[in-house]
Design goal:
Helix 7 (about 110-130) runs parallel beside helix 8 (about 145-160) and helix 8 packs parallel to helix 9. The chain has helices at about 5-10, 15-25, 35, 60-70, 70-75, 80-90, 110-130, 145-160, 185-190, 215-235, 235-240, 255-265, 280-285, 295-305, 320-325, 335-350, and strands at about 50-55, 95-100, 135-140, 165-170, 195-200, 245, 285-290, 310. It is α/β, with parallel strands linked by helices. The protein has 16 helices and eight strands. It has a single domain (about 40-355), classed as TIM Barrel (Alpha-Beta Barrel).
Length: about 350
């Protein structure tokens, strides 16, 4: 997420390089519709990628969160507009971007402030969806750890604004989502059979452990793993069977640590909260692959979960869409698998995008 966006975009592989790489995969490869649509106009965007990891920036969020808490990232997104987002999507044949609020989220210690900011962000997201039919969806933000406010916002976001799901951070202060204090929220989301998307953030205790290593480099993927293990060993995955969970960045470090978590969980007796087994629960989750479209990360993820649970994500505007869109072409995947990751798997979660 760090670095100059424009410099990285200029250095991204060209379309000619991209097609050359595809040609090397093997003779007779039939390209998916969304690859062939790269040169198409907006009228054919419905054939394109579905991006599960795009960020949007309501003015109130910029003032309350980025200006104060993430000035470096604020500088990166200073030129963001819905029109710029759509131009980036057109450039890389992205049909629909599912928008979400990025780190640090909207909770800064004051209940009413968080409730107000959640409502403003969600209404802004809802307006983008209405004004750009078919091009955007959004995950609504909640004012956690305020449980009562979150329950009210779930109803408003899903029933009135018709959000595609709920977007949460991997931790709030020093608590992770499997904590009992959040049970009423997940009970309601489970009742609604909601989609819940998790974006990582650094936990309070570990934001500045190493001055020369920004938190997004290693703390974000580690905190995704903390959130997942919090759900595992609180029994939450077994309890909330009807929630469709999506985790960012190929599940953080979970694919590499799954075996260790399972083995040592048994050693310490935690396995009683995971009666179906750790591997079973991890295979049921969905994983988008922003910042992860490379051989080591994808090899670990694909060894752990079925292809049907892997989703395209870009992390735009922090990361150019081309990083994931071109990166997955270097993995030697079949045309069917590229189509599944790029579009078809998302359609099983968001059937409204088929029309």
């Amino acid at each position: 997420m760090l670095g100059n966006w424009n410099e990285r975009r200029r250095s991204a592989p060209s379309r000619r390089q991209f097609l050359t790489t595809l040609g090397a995969i093997g003779a007779g490869l039939t390209l998916p519709d969304w690859i062939l649509a790269t040169q198409a106009s907006a009228s054919s965007a419905k054939l394109g990628l579905i991006d599960l990891h795009q960020h949007f920036f309501p003015p109130e969020f910029i003032v309350a969160a980025l200006d104060k808490y993430r000035p470096r990232e604020r500088a990166i997104v200073s030129g963001w507009t819905p029109e710029e987002a759509l131009a980036e999507m057109e450039k890389h044949s992205v049909a629909t971007g599912i928008l979400s609020i990025t780190t640090p989220g909207i909770w800064f210690g004051e209940v009413e402030d968080a409730r107000t900011l959640a409502r403003k962000c969600n209404e802004y997201g809802g307006e983008l969806v209405r004004h750009h039919r078919g091009r955007f969806g959004f995950f609504a933000v909640l004012p956690l750890p305020d449980t009562d406010g979150s329950l009210r916002e779930i109803a408003y976001a899903l029933d009135v604004l018709k959000a595609d799901g709920i977007g949460l951070m991997t931790n709030y202060g020093n608590t992770w989502p499997g904590h009992s204090r959040y049970a009423p929220v997940f009970e309601e989301l489970n009742r609604r059979k909601a989609i819940v998307y998790f974006h990582p953030t650094a936990v309070d205790c570990c934001r500045d452990l190493m001055p020369d290593v920004p938190a997004p480099l290693i703390e974000y993927p580690h905190d995704t793993s903390r959130a997942i293990t919090s759900f595992l060993y609180s029994g939450s995955f077994a309890r909330f069977r009807d929630i469709r969970f999506i985790f960012s960045h190929a599940g953080g470090t979970i694919p590499m640590l799954a075996g260790r978590i399972s083995q040592l969980g048994t050693l310490f007796g935690n396995d009683k909260k995971v009666p179906a087994g750790v591997e079973y629960e991890l295979k049921r989750l969905y994983y988008e692959i922003a910042n992860s479209a490379n051989q080591p990360a994808m090899a670990a993820l694909m060894a752990l979960v079925p292809m049907s649970h892997i989703l395209f994500g870009s992390d735009s505007p922090f990361v150019p869409t081309s990083v994931t869109a071109d990166g997955i072409k270097t993995l030697g995947l079949s045309a069917a698998d590229l189509q599944a990751i790029g579009r078809d798997n998302a359609l099983t979660l968001f059937p409204r995008l088929k029309s």
